[in-house]
What we know:
single chain; alpha/beta; Butyryl-Coa Dehydrogenase, subunit A, domain 1; Butyryl-CoA Dehydrogenase, subunit A, domain 2; Butyryl-CoA Dehydrogenase, subunit A, domain 3; 3 domains; 50% helix
Amino acid sequence: MHPPLSDEQRELIERVRALGRERFAPRAARHDLEASFPFENYADLRDAGLLGLTIPKRQGGLGADYATYAMVSAELGRWCATTALTLNMHACSMLWPGLMADDLPMSDEDRALHERRRAGIYERVLRDGAIFAQPFSEPNSAAAAGQAPFGTTARPVGGGWRVSGVKHFASLSGAAHYYGLLCTEDRPGVAPNVKDTLYLAVPADAPGAEVFGSWDPLGMRGTVSRSLRFHDVFVPEESLMMPRGAYYRAALAWPHMFMTLCPTYLGIAQAAFDFAVAYLRGEVEGAPRPGIRGAPTKQFAVAEMRLSLEQAKALFYRAIGEARVNPSKEERLRAYATQYTVMEHANDICRLAVRTCGGRSILRSLPLERLYRDSRCGSLMLPWTAEICLERLGRESLYEPGEQD
């Protein structure tokens, strides 16, 4: 059950639900089996206006705020986790320069310049149907975790930058029209610094940009998250997606910006619970007789799943309602707790569902085994892996800023 929804929120969720139930869910097994990207789903999203979901209304988009986007994404995750997770990369590529950048202090000159630049980026989406990826991870995971500068560098040249580096686990590789690239500005005589992170829109077909490597993972197979290599790729100044220094300030002031993978996994948890209930009620083709639901062991397992799901949803809805610039310490810690809880509970709900539904549930003809595999991937995803969330929850509970032993 959602918190009270506005008419606009309800309409967006219903729009995604209809697409998911009627089109995305029937295609999901094929894309999982083939490890192929769901191009048809993106054509449907484009036709439904959902590529502009997080673009401000004044610039032609649907203007979804953070909480609205999170609920829409969770609904999408119920039907096709691959589509939800990859759309997150695109939606955040619009949200970061939009709502989040608006909350950051900047000079009038910088704000006017940013307004012009992002209008051009939004136009590519709304007019041309462009899809943006957001390659984050690098071979050195410390950068994606915020503990070191990005190894991908941007060397200033006349009219822009020359970008070089490697990204891996790059969802939408080969499908996106632009890569929203986080990289470190290479300033002569200055050591690399996280404060010098740039956020650049790099055309996928730019000379020097290439997709490489294979993609045959456990789960989230349809994301096609291959590796990217950039060799001296020219990126013009107009492709700066946030002003200099803005990404670093946003990472500190808007921590919920890193919680947007979470909704997909809440959707997976809901889908696994819904399937288990329907299966035990005999409402799924190939399910055993409905009488199986009368077994106390089945009822106890469903109760465990529901408890886990309700706990995850309660934290999730509270956290997305608290998402804002400069949240309190308690709100920031609750965001870590939400990320950890949703990611871990999603897999646990899938585990219980498989055990409870029995042997037939591991067949590829049913969605549960795919949900199980997809759910296991959540806790591994940077920048807030399960381990990072636990580390920050513990340390920031025990230490105030600046304290040390």
